[in-house]
Amino acid sequence: MPSRRRTLLKVIILGDSGVGKTSLMNQYVNKKFSPQYKATIGADFLTKEVQSDDRLFTLQIWDTAGQERFQSLGVAFYRGADCCVLVYDVNVQKSFDNLNNWREEFLIQASPSDPENFPFVVLGNKVDVDGGNSRVVSEKKARAWCASKGNIPYFETSAKDGINVEEAFEVIAKNGLKSEEEEIYLPDTIDVGNTSQPRASGCDC
Amino acid sequence: MASDLSSQSPSSDEEEEESAGQKPKTAVNANSIDNSLDAIENQLSSISFNTPIDERTAPSDDHHHESESLSETAMNSIGESSSSRRSGLWTSNLEVEVEAEVDGGLASPSSSGYAGERGSSGSVTSGSGIDVVREVRDNGSSMGDDGAVVLDSSEAQWIRGKRHADEDDASVSWRKRKKHFFVLSHSGKPIYSRYGDEHKLAGFSATLQAIISFVENGGDRVKLVRAGKHQVVFLVKGPIYLVCISCTEEPYESLRGQLELLYGQMILILTRSVDRCFEKNPKFDMTPLLGGTDAVFSSLIHSFSLNPATFLHAYTCLPLAYATRQAAGAVLQDVADTGVVFAILMCKDKVVSLVGLQKASLHPDDMFLLANFVMSSESFRTSESFSPICLPRYNPMAFLYAYVHYLDVDTYLILLTASSQAFFHLKECRIRIETVLSKSNVLNEVQRSMSEGVLRIDHLPVDPSARSGSLFHLNQRRPSETVTGIGGPAGLLHFIYRSIYLDQYISSEFASPISGRQQQKRLYRAYQRLYASMHDKGVGPHKTQFRRDENYVLLCWVTQDFELYAAFDPLADKATAIRICNRVCQWVKDVENEIFLLGASPFSW
């Protein structure tokens, strides 16, 4: 048995266009921020290796496009996700209101085995803008919504200043790891008396 | 030569495959892109990805190049740290350009910016880092992580297990490899990559999944993308996706066949029960289940260019005197009657004898995959083993159990059973078999045949009246000759004869002009192309083909009973070559009970 088994976590980032999904990812992976807005088209993939509690694992981050016209890609992209990050802009009410749609859409398309307990993380981004004066969604309101959806962890972030980004992704990774289950792989053995038909009992995995 | 290779840097081994080193190219072969891609072109604006750029922090000094090259996209990534990379899908530009992106980005990552500039500056520094990593691995500390079997390198003919594990899609060396194989899950999680570290290639893997799923979403399937010299071949097997990216100019059918074998090897190790795991849980990660099998896959891929069984879908026997093979068959039959599904005695990749339960049939591909599994797993050599394995063409859903024991350095016995409790019974069987084989001198005969290489083209009977009917008298008369002769009559260099009824082939020894590995590989590739063109369903079936190029004259002859592939000196005369081929066929017929396993009951498929 390899003592240090490596794990790969697929993380999907969702949210309205312009809330800063790509910037958050860039800040996290590359420690860089660009004030210029460039729309992501379709999806963008980043990989980051993380060491946590003596375990080495890899985050495979799927940065998706926020525009509605790309949402037909959902099934293909969301399949097998280990964690989903919902992002909104604290300065744009609509992006917060849409969180519910993003969450539901994800659950429908990815159809995880245990939707109630699927690990989400919510990020309220752009807290740096205008010193917080243009903010329209209060932290209290956001936390209330997260609580109502099964206590989703919540972070207020600034991709620009790097505030809370590292911390948020740490929780993302941790929660993704939590849902990882170890199961026993036990395929059938051939029944020689009836070689063409495997026995009916399924595999126990 | 073999020992040479194992001790030095791996690049000398397969230079043909590893360093394409072509010029940057922008040409796009739009015609050859599968139709399914046309369908998605309209929508292509919807997948793309951001330009490579300055907001990526590369503290390396090759920045100015990045800004120059728009087309260095998909496979591009950051020079910065090995822990972070980015890849993406296509661009949002015009359709025409999209294909160019596939070219530059996916298949032939040699468009401006990557090969020369970025490489030269980036790789010098990373080069030294790489050596450090390799050293650590050689000391065995991190070997277990990627599951590679640690082997005594002095024994290995090539570098076993994962090679170039330090590379990823940002490495110039990685991009220059001529033939990549990837396996990934339908959620885009990497399962296997021939070169480079799977986890570091997670972004690349996601890109491949996105392409496949995107086309699938449109109700279509992507089979092949041709981009300049590169072919990207896709094979979808339920939740498992297999991709080959190659610029070796092998035919599409061959590459797809290789992906099928790669999948088969995976099934041999795990059965198709993995499908159910993915059904239950799309997040399922099967890499831990494949732990320790890197050597099996690298050996498999290695054999794609050096073992004709991989494209002939036939197996080969070790030439043996008829009585010797009969003796081996008899003792195997004895144990088969005690509940053994298949009993196989092999020497390297060649069958000595084989016996099976009635009605049970063993497909040549299964035999090839099983032999590869046994030969590439070092632990089988050191002790008797009992391991679950699945024969994909026999029953892909369930396991059999294989008792494996090496009787000498090359010769091994495989006993397959359906009972997981049968180890001690099979051990007794093996002891019985071993006793009989050594008493009847079979093992010595096997060793002799192996070392002498009996089917030599310079022994091709010249005078039909002098036919002897046995290969072995010849050798007794001329025991001192070297294995590779000077070549046969009329410039015959080599031949392969495949018997259609027996599902067996026999390959002659190589004449000296093709004694090197690279030459043999080139010849096999040529045979492979012949095979593909002779079996092309669209235009075939053909009966004969005569082809002359700068390397050889190739002659292929297909009848209901056999297929003959022969290589001659490039100056060979056509009429003479045909005459020689007739003589080869006659020769094969004369000695067929020594080169083939005849009347083997299990082959009833």
* Order of strands in the sheet with most strands of chain B: 7-14-13-17-16-15
**CATH fold assignment of chain A:** Rossmann fold
Q: Mind summarizing the main beta sheet of chain B?
A: 6 strands, mixed
Q: Could you state the oligomeric state of the chains shown?
A: heterodimer
CATH architecture of the largest domain in chain B: 2-Layer Sandwich
Counted by DSSP, the helix tally of chain B is 21
CATH class of the largest domain in chain B: Alpha Beta
Helix content of chain A: 25-40%
Mean pLDDT across all amino acids of chain A: 84
User: Uncertain regions of chain B: pLDDT < 50 for 5+ in a row?
Assistant: 1-16, 18-157, 477-485, 601-605
The total count of helices of chain A amounts to 6
GO cellular component, one term (chain A): vacuolar membrane
Keywords (chain A): GTP-binding, Lipoprotein, Membrane, Methylation, Nucleotide-binding, Prenylation, Protein transport, Transport
Family (chain A): Belongs to the small GTPase superfamily. Rab family.
Protein name (chain A): Rab7
